[in-house]
Amino acid sequence: MRNVAKFIILGLGLSLSSLPMTPAASAGPALSLRGGSSVLLEQPLARDPVLGDLRIEVDSRDPAHKAERVGKAANLGLSSLSFPRPVPFFAPPAQRVRTLVGIDTWFWVPAASWRPIVRVVAAGNVVVTLVATPVTLQMVPGDGSPLVSCPGPGLPWLAPGTRSLCSHVFQRASTAGLTGRFRGIVQTVWAVRWTSNTGLAGTVGPVVVPTPVSLRVVEAQPVLGR
């Protein structure tokens, strides 16, 4: 009987220490194995829409590298990646209440969501490891200003006088528009690194994962008193 290659995504039962890992993964927070149970795949999983047409191309003429099998395993692993949508917070809380013109508006996402995602895929004797790592948090303010980009998940607001790279100063109020709000986007940018036990490796991406936001920005009114 002819052997039929089966693609297996390996979960918690597989020791990651026996597989090649990337420097980005080892230097980051604890690895998060999403969907940790082992699954035998007869066909690829439903593809996360944020991946779009992204595909891993493997080019090698060395038979020992088994490029065709590596490519199939790598793309199966890529299709199985599910990226968490950013859950943004603001200070002042522009989504729930309002922020003000002319002050730093901070934005951030929970630090617990800022960790690598790992997929390990086997095709016969070929093993491919994919590590997706969040690298940048970005905000499109929605007021016509350029995109704001910062490394890491941002800082929760601490106290007056502190500074954050993940912040934006609105120069005008949103109340002049029809909705009274700026329609913006907060997004995380992911880098995906893949390695294989044949020596082939590479990167793919970036993968941009957006969350729409609605921000109310008002002007502070002075109050005169004695």
Structure report:
The protein is mainly beta and 226 residues long. 8% of the residues lie in helices and 35% in strands. It contains two helices and twelve strands. The chain has helices spanning 23-27, 67-80; strands at 7-10, 39-41, 89-91, 99-100, 104-108, 117-123, 126-140, 148-151, 167-169, 182-196, 201-215, 217-218. The strands form three sheets. Strands 1, 2, 6, 7, 8, 10 and 11 form a seven-stranded antiparallel sheet that branches. Strand 7 (126-140) and strand 8 (148-151) form a beta hairpin. The N and C termini lie far apart (95 Å).
Domains (count)? 1
Largest sheet: 7 strands, antiparallel
**Rg calculated over all Cα atoms:** 22 Å
SSE pattern: EHEHEEEEEEEEEE
Got a strand count? 12
> Structural class given helices, strands, pairing?
mainly beta
- Using the alpha-carbon principal axes, give the shape: elongated
- Sequence stretches where pLDDT stays below 50 over 5 or more residues: 1-42
User: Considering DSSP H and I runs of 4 or more, what fraction of the residues is helical?
Assistant: under 10%
Residue-averaged pLDDT:
79
Number of contiguous helices: 2
